[in-house]
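hey can u run this one w/ calcium ion bound, need the structure tokens asap thx
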Amino acid sequence: MAYRDEKLSEEKVFKDPVHRYVHVRDRVIWDLIGTAEFQRLRRIKQLGTSYLTFHGAEHSRFNHSLGVYEIVRRIIENFQDRPHWNAEERLLSLCAALLHDLGHGPFSHSFEKVFKLDHEDFTQAILLGDTEVNRILNRVEKGFPKKVADVINKTYENKLVVSVISSQIDADRMDYLQRDAYFTGVSYGHFDMERILRVMRPMEDQVVVKESGMHAVEDYIMSRYQMYWQVYFHPVTRSAEVILTKILHRAKELYEEGYTFKLDPVHFMSFFRGQPTLKEYLALDEAVVLYYFQTWMEEDDGVLSDLCQRFVNRRLFKYIEFNPNAQMNEWMELYKLFTKAGLNPDYYLVVDSSSDLPYDFYRPGEEGERLPIHLLQPNGELKELSRLSDIVESISGKKRTDHKLYIPLDLLEDMSNRSKTKKRIMEILFG
Ligand code: CA
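ok here u go:
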């Protein structure tokens, strides 16, 4: 029997707190889960620094990837005998679902920002490079790794397959919303996925939802909206992320100045230089990063050691509302005052802005163009969701941005009350 059709003699199941069970019958999927590159995802948390806000949020990208695979498996099961669905695309869809986040590194957002990397490039590199994953995909069929890479990259010719994995209502989002809600313990993020799966239909170039499922879809869109503001953009999580980003900045800056670290940061060298190889990239997981942060707590450089202690022991920066566009003068004065007070403003005075677009209708040609959700009406016509749903219409295409200013309030409070600099800083910050 061809490798691509091989089934395990007995179905394997993973217990999963969100989907109850994840079912594996295909030999290929089982082999992919066993690769070093996929197992590495156990050591990358799904929500980065969120565990410092929601202590339950320790789940990994491994959990999430299995979850996305399971949702796609169920979607395809429902598609089986429907028009437009090509059964030949089954294994490809399952592999793309399982492997879509393969290139994520530790604390992706901060690492990508500081070292100018892109996890999507690394996903492609793992699929196409000299890896265990690549060897397995190649056994399926020559050119198969490239197909999987194209689906994940959204360039695959069959757009129906692409939209199952990534669109505004895809398996990725449906898994992470429920999973992140479960592990953070918040009451948002829940919606009736069973209902949505039952009313999803394959069309020529996209997945659509029967109109009768509109309210379940509305609930899903609202869940996503709530999760962004209540969980993903939580100001405390962002405080930890600001500190993490500044640690990486500082370490890189010290390296460039020729500073001698007490422990050679071997795992970071290629990142500091800006061009980690695939092997070097894969060797840096969150356990390794946290190990360095622990050792850097003892460094002679005051900024690096202070920031690492803050991260490791959760002594986070405090925040206030602050719009840098409207408060330019205050910003400039604070910058000078911080310098005067001996607090390096490049590390201790940080503005962070987060924004989200909860749902978007179709804007052809615009940046970040996203396929909208289409409802299938009883007469067979398709209608874009926000044209039928008032609830979705009210948040469609509206980008919301939140600005915060992060500061080490403890260090400011430690300054003498007679200091004029302190008085003025406090005045600007708290009025
Ligand atoms: Ca994902």
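The chain has three domains: 3-232, 234-315, 317-358+399-431. anyway lmk if its weird
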